Hints:
Layout: H1 2-28, E1 31-42, E2 51-59, E3 62-67, E4 79-84, E5 92-94, H2 99-127
Amino acid sequence: MIAVWIVAAACIIAGGLYGFPKLIKLLTCKGRVQGMISGTSFAPGTGDQPMRAMYVYTVDGVEYRRKTPYTNFAHFSKDCEVRYNKKNPKRSYIRQSGMVINAVLGTVFVIVGIGVIIVGFVLKAKLGF
């Protein structure tokens, strides 16, 4: 039975650590501005590696230079739509960076973890562990 709780905790922790920061960014970055990709890079290693983009955007006459997190779900073009936090324009992301799918994946892991907890309680009740 301990294995069920370990799997549940691992799913919830991994999903939360992976998805929550992205979900918070999606919810707080409501401003929109046109930006430009200034470069891309791949994660170190061999084979198919995640990529990252460096982008530039201007809010209220102030230019910001940021990098996306590494992602496998990116689709970058020269021009990009930047979503930024209106209270703190340094906090931003670009739509093409895979932020939405990464947040969804993290949320799915949390939901799976909760499902495993429910299954654990059902097994405990049925089998008497």
